[in-house]
Amino acid sequence: MITANRRLAQLPVRAWQQQWRDAVTDPLELLRLLGLEHRSAELLASRDTGFALRVPRGYVARMRAGDAADPLLLQVLPRPAELVNAPGYAFDAVGDMAASAAPGVLQKYNGRALLIATGSCAVNCRYCFRRHFPYGEQTAAANRWQGAVAAIAADTSISEVLLSGGDPLSLSNAKLAELGQALTAIPHVQRLRIHTRLPVVLPERVDAGLVQWLAQLPLQKVVVIHANHANELDASVDTAHAQLREAGCTLLNQSVLLRGVNDNEDALALLSERLLASGVLPYYLHQLDKVQGAAHFEVDDAQALTLMQALRARLPGYLVPRLVRETAGEKSKTPV
Ligand SMILES: *Cc1c(COP(=O)(O)O)cnc(C)c1O
Protein backbone atom coordinates (compact mmCIF):
# COMPACT_ATOMS: atom_id res chain seq x y z
CA MET A 1 0.00 0.00 0.00
CA ILE A 2 1.26 3.47 -0.84
CA THR A 3 1.30 5.75 2.17
CA ALA A 4 0.18 9.36 1.96
CA ASN A 5 3.77 10.47 2.49
CA ARG A 6 5.09 8.41 -0.34
CA ARG A 7 2.34 9.70 -2.59
CA LEU A 8 3.36 13.23 -1.74
CA ALA A 9 7.01 12.48 -2.36
CA GLN A 10 6.10 11.25 -5.83
CA LEU A 11 4.05 14.29 -6.68
CA PRO A 12 6.69 16.56 -8.24
CA VAL A 13 7.97 13.74 -10.44
CA ARG A 14 4.50 12.83 -11.65
CA ALA A 15 3.20 16.35 -12.03
CA TRP A 16 3.76 16.99 -15.72
CA GLN A 17 2.62 13.55 -16.84
CA GLN A 18 -0.54 14.01 -14.78
CA GLN A 19 -1.23 17.39 -16.32
CA TRP A 20 -0.54 15.98 -19.76
CA ARG A 21 -3.20 13.30 -19.26
CA ASP A 22 -5.60 15.82 -17.77
CA ALA A 23 -5.59 18.05 -20.92
CA VAL A 24 -8.87 19.40 -22.28
CA THR A 25 -9.89 17.31 -25.31
CA ASP A 26 -13.61 18.13 -25.55
CA PRO A 27 -14.28 21.34 -27.53
CA LEU A 28 -17.53 21.95 -25.63
CA GLU A 29 -15.71 21.72 -22.31
CA LEU A 30 -13.15 24.24 -23.54
CA LEU A 31 -15.91 26.67 -24.51
CA ARG A 32 -17.64 26.07 -21.16
CA LEU A 33 -14.41 26.86 -19.25
CA LEU A 34 -14.29 30.20 -21.09
CA GLY A 35 -17.99 31.01 -20.78
CA LEU A 36 -18.51 30.65 -24.54
CA GLU A 37 -20.68 27.53 -24.69
CA HIS A 38 -23.69 29.50 -25.95
CA ARG A 39 -21.74 30.19 -29.15
CA SER A 40 -20.68 26.60 -29.87
CA ALA A 41 -22.70 26.27 -33.11
CA GLU A 42 -20.88 29.22 -34.63
CA LEU A 43 -17.41 28.59 -33.15
CA LEU A 44 -16.92 24.83 -33.55
CA ALA A 45 -16.33 22.70 -36.63
CA SER A 46 -19.55 20.81 -37.34
CA ARG A 47 -17.79 17.49 -37.96
CA ASP A 48 -14.51 15.73 -37.20
CA THR A 49 -11.50 17.66 -38.54
CA GLY A 50 -9.27 14.56 -38.28
CA PHE A 51 -7.08 16.41 -35.74
CA ALA A 52 -8.46 16.35 -32.23
CA LEU A 53 -8.54 19.21 -29.76
CA ARG A 54 -5.84 18.86 -27.13
CA VAL A 55 -4.76 21.63 -24.74
CA PRO A 56 -3.30 21.55 -21.21
CA ARG A 57 -5.38 23.29 -18.54
CA GLY A 58 -2.55 25.61 -17.51
CA TYR A 59 -2.56 27.05 -21.02
CA VAL A 60 -6.35 27.41 -20.98
CA ALA A 61 -5.97 29.42 -17.77
CA ARG A 62 -4.02 32.04 -19.76
CA MET A 63 -6.93 32.58 -22.17
CA ARG A 64 -9.34 35.48 -21.63
CA ALA A 65 -12.76 34.27 -20.54
CA GLY A 66 -15.64 35.38 -22.75
CA ASP A 67 -13.39 36.30 -25.69
CA ALA A 68 -13.99 34.15 -28.78
CA ALA A 69 -11.11 35.96 -30.53
CA ASP A 70 -8.58 35.22 -27.79
CA PRO A 71 -5.21 34.64 -29.50
CA LEU A 72 -4.49 31.50 -27.46
CA LEU A 73 -7.94 30.01 -28.00
CA LEU A 74 -7.73 30.51 -31.77
CA GLN A 75 -4.52 28.45 -31.86
CA VAL A 76 -6.18 25.33 -30.47
CA LEU A 77 -9.91 25.46 -31.23
CA PRO A 78 -11.15 23.24 -34.13
CA ARG A 79 -13.10 25.84 -36.09
CA PRO A 80 -15.50 25.52 -39.05
CA ALA A 81 -12.94 27.09 -41.43
CA GLU A 82 -10.73 23.99 -41.09
CA LEU A 83 -13.22 21.96 -43.08
CA VAL A 84 -12.86 24.18 -46.14
CA ASN A 85 -10.82 22.50 -48.85
CA ALA A 86 -8.26 25.17 -49.77
CA PRO A 87 -6.49 24.94 -53.13
CA GLY A 88 -2.70 24.85 -52.76
CA TYR A 89 -2.89 23.50 -49.21
CA ALA A 90 -1.37 20.00 -49.04
CA PHE A 91 -1.03 17.12 -46.60
CA ASP A 92 2.80 17.14 -46.63
CA ALA A 93 3.33 20.90 -46.80
CA VAL A 94 7.11 21.04 -46.49
CA GLY A 95 8.35 18.01 -48.44
CA ASP A 96 9.19 15.99 -45.32
CA MET A 97 8.58 12.67 -47.05
CA ALA A 98 11.17 13.37 -49.74
CA ALA A 99 13.90 14.15 -47.19
CA SER A 100 13.83 11.03 -45.04
CA ALA A 101 17.37 9.66 -44.62
CA ALA A 102 16.47 6.89 -42.12
CA PRO A 103 13.28 6.25 -40.14
CA GLY A 104 12.59 9.49 -38.30
CA VAL A 105 15.62 11.33 -39.71
CA LEU A 106 15.16 14.28 -42.07
CA GLN A 107 18.23 15.77 -43.66
CA LYS A 108 17.39 18.76 -45.73
CA TYR A 109 20.06 21.26 -44.67
CA ASN A 110 23.85 21.21 -44.54
CA GLY A 111 25.41 20.01 -41.32
CA ARG A 112 22.10 19.46 -39.57
CA ALA A 113 20.03 16.33 -39.13
CA LEU A 114 16.51 16.66 -37.80
CA LEU A 115 15.03 13.81 -35.80
CA ILE A 116 11.30 13.34 -35.65
CA ALA A 117 11.80 12.16 -32.09
CA THR A 118 8.20 11.23 -31.37
CA GLY A 119 4.73 11.92 -32.67
CA SER A 120 3.33 12.93 -29.29
CA CYS A 121 2.61 16.49 -28.30
CA ALA A 122 0.82 18.00 -25.31
CA VAL A 123 -1.05 20.49 -27.48
CA ASN A 124 -2.58 20.25 -30.92
CA CYS A 125 -1.97 23.56 -32.68
CA ARG A 126 -4.42 23.96 -35.53
CA TYR A 127 -1.73 25.26 -37.92
CA CYS A 128 0.68 22.37 -37.18
CA PHE A 129 2.41 21.50 -40.45
CA ARG A 130 2.80 17.92 -39.33
CA ARG A 131 -0.90 17.52 -38.45
CA HIS A 132 -1.12 14.82 -41.14
CA PHE A 133 2.34 13.28 -40.57
CA PRO A 134 2.47 9.44 -40.60
CA TYR A 135 4.26 9.23 -37.25
CA GLY A 136 3.53 5.50 -36.96
CA GLU A 137 6.32 4.58 -39.39
CA GLN A 138 8.60 7.53 -38.81
CA THR A 139 9.80 8.21 -35.29
CA ALA A 140 13.48 8.29 -34.37
CA ALA A 141 13.08 7.18 -30.75
CA ALA A 142 11.79 3.78 -31.85
CA ASN A 143 14.30 0.91 -31.38
CA ARG A 144 16.32 2.87 -28.84
CA TRP A 145 17.23 5.48 -31.48
CA GLN A 146 19.38 2.89 -33.30
CA GLY A 147 18.52 3.76 -36.91
CA ALA A 148 18.78 7.49 -36.30
CA VAL A 149 22.07 7.26 -34.40
CA ALA A 150 23.60 5.01 -37.07
CA ALA A 151 22.65 7.48 -39.82
CA ILE A 152 24.19 10.40 -37.87
CA ALA A 153 27.35 8.44 -37.00
CA ALA A 154 27.83 7.52 -40.65
CA ASP A 155 27.76 11.12 -41.89
CA THR A 156 30.66 13.21 -40.62
CA SER A 157 29.16 16.38 -42.12
CA ILE A 158 26.53 16.45 -39.35
CA SER A 159 27.58 18.70 -36.47
CA GLU A 160 24.14 19.55 -35.16
CA VAL A 161 21.26 17.27 -34.25
CA LEU A 162 17.81 18.83 -34.03
CA LEU A 163 15.05 17.19 -32.09
CA SER A 164 11.61 17.88 -33.42
CA GLY A 165 8.35 15.98 -33.53
CA GLY A 166 5.65 15.94 -32.22
CA ASP A 167 7.33 17.47 -29.23
CA PRO A 168 10.66 15.87 -28.23
CA LEU A 169 10.15 16.84 -24.60
CA SER A 170 7.13 14.54 -24.51
CA LEU A 171 9.73 11.77 -24.23
CA SER A 172 10.81 10.70 -20.75
CA ASN A 173 14.08 11.96 -19.31
CA ALA A 174 15.40 8.38 -19.52
CA LYS A 175 14.63 8.18 -23.23
CA LEU A 176 16.33 11.53 -23.86
CA ALA A 177 19.36 10.44 -21.82
CA GLU A 178 19.67 7.37 -24.07
CA LEU A 179 19.99 9.64 -27.09
CA GLY A 180 22.32 12.05 -25.32
CA GLN A 181 24.68 9.22 -24.48
CA ALA A 182 24.71 7.95 -28.06
CA LEU A 183 25.29 11.42 -29.53
CA THR A 184 28.08 12.21 -27.08
CA ALA A 185 29.96 9.19 -28.43
CA ILE A 186 29.88 10.57 -32.01
CA PRO A 187 32.89 12.91 -32.36
CA HIS A 188 31.47 15.09 -35.16
CA VAL A 189 28.27 15.97 -33.26
CA GLN A 190 28.84 19.26 -31.40
CA ARG A 191 25.37 20.63 -30.83
CA LEU A 192 21.98 19.41 -29.74
CA ARG A 193 19.05 21.64 -30.62
CA ILE A 194 15.61 20.95 -29.15
CA HIS A 195 12.54 22.44 -30.77
CA THR A 196 9.75 22.37 -28.24
CA ARG A 197 6.51 24.05 -27.29
CA LEU A 198 6.33 22.32 -23.90
CA PRO A 199 8.06 25.04 -21.82
CA VAL A 200 5.22 27.30 -23.00
CA VAL A 201 2.20 25.00 -22.94
CA LEU A 202 3.25 22.70 -20.08
CA PRO A 203 6.14 24.40 -18.23
CA GLU A 204 6.05 21.73 -15.51
CA ARG A 205 7.81 19.50 -18.06
CA VAL A 206 11.05 21.33 -17.28
CA ASP A 207 11.53 19.20 -14.17
CA ALA A 208 14.60 18.46 -12.08
CA GLY A 209 15.51 15.37 -14.08
CA LEU A 210 15.45 17.21 -17.39
CA VAL A 211 17.48 20.10 -16.02
CA GLN A 212 20.08 17.74 -14.54
CA TRP A 213 20.38 15.83 -17.79
CA LEU A 214 20.90 18.99 -19.82
CA ALA A 215 23.34 20.48 -17.34
CA GLN A 216 25.70 17.50 -17.56
CA LEU A 217 25.33 16.85 -21.28
CA PRO A 218 28.72 17.61 -22.88
CA LEU A 219 27.30 19.22 -26.04
CA GLN A 220 26.35 22.79 -26.89
CA LYS A 221 22.64 23.08 -26.23
CA VAL A 222 20.09 25.26 -27.95
CA VAL A 223 16.41 25.17 -27.05
CA VAL A 224 14.06 26.77 -29.55
CA ILE A 225 10.72 27.40 -27.90
CA HIS A 226 7.56 28.08 -29.87
CA ALA A 227 5.55 31.05 -28.66
CA ASN A 228 3.27 33.08 -30.90
CA HIS A 229 1.81 35.63 -28.49
CA ALA A 230 2.95 37.44 -25.35
CA ASN A 231 -0.10 36.17 -23.43
CA GLU A 232 1.34 32.66 -23.68
CA LEU A 233 4.13 33.60 -21.27
CA ASP A 234 3.51 33.79 -17.54
CA ALA A 235 5.54 33.30 -14.36
CA SER A 236 5.47 29.50 -14.68
CA VAL A 237 6.92 29.77 -18.20
CA ASP A 238 9.57 32.24 -16.97
CA THR A 239 10.64 29.72 -14.34
CA ALA A 240 10.97 26.96 -16.93
CA HIS A 241 13.11 29.23 -19.13
CA ALA A 242 15.32 30.26 -16.20
CA GLN A 243 15.97 26.61 -15.39
CA LEU A 244 16.88 25.80 -18.98
CA ARG A 245 19.29 28.72 -19.07
CA GLU A 246 20.87 27.65 -15.79
CA ALA A 247 21.40 24.23 -17.37
CA GLY A 248 23.51 25.93 -20.06
CA CYS A 249 20.97 26.17 -22.87
CA THR A 250 20.79 29.09 -25.30
CA LEU A 251 17.10 30.00 -25.68
CA LEU A 252 15.57 31.15 -28.95
CA ASN A 253 11.98 31.50 -30.09
CA GLN A 254 10.28 30.74 -33.34
CA SER A 255 6.76 31.87 -34.13
CA VAL A 256 4.31 31.42 -36.92
CA LEU A 257 2.63 34.49 -38.35
CA LEU A 258 -1.07 33.73 -37.86
CA ARG A 259 -4.08 35.73 -38.98
CA GLY A 260 -6.18 36.74 -36.01
CA VAL A 261 -3.48 35.68 -33.51
CA ASN A 262 -0.39 37.86 -34.02
CA ASP A 263 -0.81 39.60 -37.40
CA ASN A 264 -0.38 43.12 -36.06
CA GLU A 265 2.55 45.29 -35.03
CA ASP A 266 1.65 45.51 -31.35
CA ALA A 267 1.24 41.77 -30.90
CA LEU A 268 4.60 41.02 -32.53
CA ALA A 269 6.47 43.80 -30.72
CA LEU A 270 5.03 42.84 -27.34
CA LEU A 271 5.92 39.20 -28.00
CA SER A 272 9.56 40.07 -28.70
CA GLU A 273 9.79 42.23 -25.57
CA ARG A 274 8.09 39.64 -23.40
CA LEU A 275 10.41 36.94 -24.71
CA LEU A 276 13.48 38.97 -23.82
CA ALA A 277 12.11 39.53 -20.33
CA SER A 278 11.95 35.74 -20.13
CA GLY A 279 15.55 35.32 -21.35
CA VAL A 280 14.63 34.25 -24.89
CA LEU A 281 15.71 35.90 -28.16
CA PRO A 282 13.43 35.92 -31.22
CA TYR A 283 14.81 33.77 -34.04
CA TYR A 284 12.32 33.09 -36.82
CA LEU A 285 8.89 34.37 -37.72
CA HIS A 286 7.55 31.77 -40.11
CA GLN A 287 5.12 32.26 -42.90
CA LEU A 288 2.51 29.55 -42.51
CA ASP A 289 3.24 26.16 -44.03
CA LYS A 290 0.40 25.43 -46.42
CA VAL A 291 -1.06 22.43 -44.67
CA GLN A 292 -4.63 21.39 -45.39
CA GLY A 293 -6.98 22.79 -42.72
CA ALA A 294 -4.90 25.88 -41.86
CA ALA A 295 -5.68 28.24 -44.77
CA HIS A 296 -7.71 30.60 -42.58
CA PHE A 297 -4.51 31.54 -40.70
CA GLU A 298 -2.70 32.80 -43.80
CA VAL A 299 -1.21 36.31 -43.84
CA ASP A 300 -0.09 37.42 -47.30
CA ASP A 301 3.55 38.33 -47.95
CA ALA A 302 2.82 42.01 -48.59
CA GLN A 303 1.23 42.40 -45.15
CA ALA A 304 4.00 40.34 -43.54
CA LEU A 305 6.68 42.60 -45.06
CA THR A 306 4.85 45.72 -43.88
CA LEU A 307 4.77 44.27 -40.36
CA MET A 308 8.49 43.54 -40.48
CA GLN A 309 9.22 47.10 -41.53
CA ALA A 310 7.21 48.39 -38.58
CA LEU A 311 9.06 46.05 -36.19
CA ARG A 312 12.46 47.17 -37.48
CA ALA A 313 11.47 50.80 -36.91
CA ARG A 314 10.19 50.09 -33.41
CA LEU A 315 12.52 47.55 -31.82
CA PRO A 316 16.24 47.03 -31.27
CA GLY A 317 17.63 44.81 -34.02
CA TYR A 318 18.07 41.81 -31.75
CA LEU A 319 14.34 41.76 -31.04
CA VAL A 320 13.37 41.55 -34.72
CA PRO A 321 12.88 37.94 -35.85
CA ARG A 322 13.76 36.82 -39.39
CA LEU A 323 10.71 36.40 -41.59
CA VAL A 324 11.13 33.12 -43.45
CA ARG A 325 9.21 30.42 -45.19
CA GLU A 326 10.01 26.79 -45.66
CA THR A 327 10.07 25.80 -49.32
CA ALA A 328 10.22 22.12 -50.24
CA GLY A 329 13.55 21.28 -51.88
CA GLU A 330 15.42 24.44 -50.72
CA LYS A 331 18.70 24.14 -48.79
CA SER A 332 17.69 26.56 -46.04
CA LYS A 333 14.67 28.47 -44.83
CA THR A 334 13.94 31.14 -47.42
CA PRO A 335 13.80 34.83 -46.45
CA VAL A 336 10.47 36.40 -47.46
C1 LIG B 1 14.08 24.16 -40.20
C2 LIG B 1 14.89 22.94 -40.36
C3 LIG B 1 16.20 22.89 -39.90
C4 LIG B 1 16.86 24.03 -39.17
O1 LIG B 1 17.02 25.16 -39.94
P1 LIG B 1 17.71 26.44 -39.26
O2 LIG B 1 17.65 27.46 -40.33
O3 LIG B 1 19.10 26.04 -38.90
O4 LIG B 1 16.90 26.78 -38.06
C5 LIG B 1 16.92 21.73 -40.11
N1 LIG B 1 16.39 20.66 -40.73
C6 LIG B 1 15.13 20.68 -41.21
C7 LIG B 1 14.60 19.47 -41.89
C8 LIG B 1 14.33 21.80 -41.03
O5 LIG B 1 13.08 21.80 -41.48
Automatic annotation (TrEMBL):
What cofactors does this protein use?
A: pyridoxal 5'-phosphate; [4Fe-4S] cluster
Residues bearing the modification N6-(pyridoxal phosphate)lysine: 333
What GO terms are given for molecular function?
4 iron, 4 sulfur cluster binding; isomerase activity; metal ion binding
Its keywords, alphabetically, are: 4Fe-4S, Iron, Iron-sulfur, Isomerase, Metal-binding, Pyridoxal phosphate, S-adenosyl-L-methionine
**InterPro entries from the xrefs?**
Aldolase_TIM, EpmB, Lys_aminomutase/Glu_NH3_mut, rSAM, rSAM_sf
Enumerate the residues binding [4Fe-4S] cluster: 121, 125, 128
| Keyword Cytoplasm belongs to the record | no
Q: Which Gene3D superfamilies match?
A: Aldolase class I (3.20.20.70)
Residue ranges constituting the Radical SAM core domain according to the UniProt record: 107-319
Reactions mediated catalytically: L-lysine = D-beta-lysine
Would the keyword Zinc turn up in this protein's UniProt record?
no
Task: Tell me its family.
Answer: Belongs to the radical SAM superfamily. KamA family.
Q: What is this protein called?
A: L-lysine 2,3-aminomutase
Q: Which organism is it from?
A: Tahibacter aquaticus
